[in-house]
Write a structure and sequence with these properties.
Number of helices: 8
Radius of gyration: 17 Å
Number of strands: 7
Shape: globular
Distance between the termini: 37 Å
Strand order of the largest sheet: 1-2-3-4-5-7-6
Largest sheet: 7 strands, mixed
Strand content: 15-25%
Structural class: alpha+beta
Amino acid sequence: MEQANAVVIRQFETEDTEAVAGILAISFAKKFQRMIRLGGDDLVSFFKDSGFAYNKPFPGYFVAQVNARVVGVLVLKWSNQARPGFPRLSIFELCAKYGFLNILRSMVGIALLHESASSDEAYIEHVAILPEAQGLGIGRQLIEHGRQFAGQMEALRRYTLSVAANNAGAIKLYERLGFLPRNKTDSILTWMLFGEFRWLFMEMALRRDHGKCKLKHLNG
């Protein structure tokens, strides 16, 4: 297990791409391997080649380091966010390298997971930690760092995320941090592709003065 005596949260740099792709591949392997027949190094390469692992810095893209090693990643999204173009292989090149059906399924799956951020929210697009660095509070630190960062933007009032409803551990963490379930969505398509049928959309106020938004727990 990593030692948590030197946790640094900082802006992503291009040199972190390989580490971030590896973290995402491990964190999302169970979901993606139901959808595409790739694993290990091939899944890491796919995340880089497809642009799923962003390879350029932009506001809201952070990594966590422990002892100079990147062990976690957080990506925020908000309306009118400035993001650069990301070099990636073309659809034809991806199909030639990974297979047409793999690319078709991945495009459908990524589209299903896509969430558009409204004008007053900072949405957590990704938060992922290496298994050996979990349990050290790094996820909490990343999310809190993102909250403080987003809270500096006057237009943003809400901090939001989506999580699979059967991910009890993650939901407990988010609730401890102050997130509340706002609504739930059922999708037969995400069940077919990812094995996840029900999703919770959770949110918290970025500032105390927005506590009037009347967030409430879902029942049932």
